[in-house]
Fold this protein.
Amino acid sequence: MMISKKNVQHYIWGDNCDGWRLIDEEDRCIIHERMPVGASEVRHFHSKAKQFFFILSGTMTIELDGTVYNLEEHEGIEVKPILPLQVYNKSYRDLEFLVISQPNTRNDRELVESNFEGNSKKW
């Protein structure tokens, strides 16, 4: 079956962000997400899931364990389990990206206090 944002589950999260569950299986999930300008996600970590973020359009600012990376279109970053992360859209246009997680992140998310002054790095 062909998979499209038009024929999969859509949900709203965070600061008016969109998510489309392209693949939603127990051992993996692939989500297409959109974050409007100025939006951010809460700082958290996953106990089991490793994730890969791949930027489709826009610029992602992602804080990983106190270090900040700025990812441009067609760049990605892997996030290992237990590593605290937070995603921001500090750019001038919507951010769209894929999040590929193994295993699925359902019921595998712990919130972390967001008080950091990290180092900034270009990925």
Notes: Residues 15 and 39 are 5 Å apart (CA to CA). The domain at 19-70+83-110 is CATH 2.60.120.10 (Jelly Rolls). The two ends are 35 Å apart (CA to CA).
